[in-house]
TrEMBL record:
Its cofactor is Cu cation. Its main location: membrane. It is an enzyme of class 7 (translocase). This is Cytochrome c oxidase subunit 2. The lineage of its organism: Bacteria, Pseudomonadati, Bacteroidota, Cytophagia, Cytophagales. The chain crosses the membrane at residues 6-23, 44-65, 85-110, 131-152. It catalyses: 4 Fe(II)-[cytochrome c] + O2 + 8 H(+)(in) = 4 Fe(III)-[cytochrome c] + 2 H2O + 4 H(+)(out). It comes from Algoriphagus oliviformis. Its EC number is 7.1.1.9. Residues 59-159 form the Cytochrome oxidase subunit II transmembrane region profile domain. InterPro entries: CcO_II, CcO_II-like_C, Cupredoxin, Cyt_c_oxidase_su2_TM_dom, Cyt_c_oxidase_su2_TM_sf.
Length: 345
């Protein structure tokens, strides 16, 4: 370890000595005390600029084409078509500007490298040029921003009344899923009610909570609106479903939401990708601690008929754990007992 540090120190010292020498050379050039202004390194550096442009450009295009399928995943939601279109329009605009500016950036040092018989042109300002390169980017960026704002407003607008509600709660280091019952209304929750047997903190004194049920995976129907109600129990998390083009932060104390319409079942996506083991998933895209990498939850998209069948087969929290009904008021407890009796039939 010490040998490595000594080696780094020696390199730093040599670099400093070299830089001091170069600075002294440039100072002497400015003062006119050094007659040799142009050197061989001037042409070498100019050629290296062009070689770097060609090599890095070739690498960029090669890698982008080679890995295209890995970063351009198939779309499985209606709004995903809109967001992808906006993404590629933005990429086209910024990509063209990037290529033009960087080609000029690396070609100019070669084309206009120092020569003793060349004199630089004095060009202090150009008002028309200033107006053009201010107005054009402003108009283009305004168009991109307004288009993105309109798409985002549609996505974050209130969900349709017939949307299927799913609550996703993040905590270190997993996701918990809660569905409302037949009323499609989730019951209240309170973080002070969180226990080993009530990890969601569901308030069972609220009658709407009596038919809520948990699920080990997110099951949603194809072609029908789905509303994710998102919250966090401890630190900041982020719900990310790449194929759905869905990403929304889960913030402690500040519930968020995201609604969308799935367009492909899990089986259809498996056939499209020719991958019988494919599964949609939710991942966490906020670094929330040491176990961040393990925050995954499977999404299963099924046909509406299969969804209704699955939904009807689920058991509520209280049906799975009758002890949760202890301490409830008489009328609420009666409703809970009715549920228990129905589950035993």
């Amino acid at each position: 370890m010490y040998g490595f540090l000594i080696g780094v120190g020696v390199l730093l010292v040599l670099s400093i000595v070299w830089m001091v020498y170069r600075i002294q050379t440039l100072v002497s050039v400015v003062k006119g005390s050094d007659k040799k202004i142009a050197s061989g390194s001037n042409k070498v550096n100019a050629i290296l600029f062009v070689l770097f442009l060609l090599a890095s450009g070739a690498l960029m295009f090669w890698y982008s084409i080679k890995e295209f399928d890995n970063y351009q995943l198939p779309i499985a939601s209606e709004h995903g078509v809109v967001t992808d279109s906006l993404f590629w329009i933005t990429m086209a605009v910024t990509g063209v500007v990037f290529l033009i500016t960087h080609v000029l950036l690396f070609v100019f040092p070669y084309k206009y490298q120092y020569k003793e018989d060349r004199k630089a042109t004095f060009y202090p300002d150009n008002n028309k040029l200033e107006v053009v390169w201010t107005a054009v980017p402003a108009v283009v960026l305004a168009g991109l921003v307004i288009s993105g704002w309109m798409a985002w407003s549609d996505i974050t607008a209130p969900a349709p009344e017939n949307a299927h509600v799913v609550e996703i709660m993040g905590y270190q280091f997993a996701w918990e899923i809660r569905y409302p019952g037949k009323d499609n209304v989730l019951g209240d929750y309170d973080y002070r009610l969180i226990t080993a047997s009530n990890s969601h903190g569901v308030d069972f004194t609220d009658k709407n909570a009596l038919d809520d049920f948990p699920s080990p995976r997110v099951v949603i129907p194809k072609g029908e609106p789905v509303l994710f109600k998102i919250r966090a129990r401890d630190v900041l998390h982020s719900v990310f479903a790449p194929h759905m083009r869905l990403k929304m932060d889960a913030v402690p104390g500040m519930p968020t939401r995201f609604w969308f319409v799935p367009t492909k079942t899990t089986e259809e996506m498996r056939a499209e990708l020719n991958d019988p083991e494919f599964e949609y998933e939710i991942a966490c895209t906020e670094i929330c601690g040491r176990g961040h990498f393990g925050m995954k939850k499977v999404i299963e998209v099924v046909e509406p008929e299969a969804y209704q069948k699955w939904y009807a087969e689920q058991k509520t929290f209280i049906q799975q754990n009758p002890a949760l009904a202890e301490g409830l008021s008489a009328d609420v407890k009666e409703l809970a007992e009715i549920q228990l009796r129905e589950s035993k039939k």
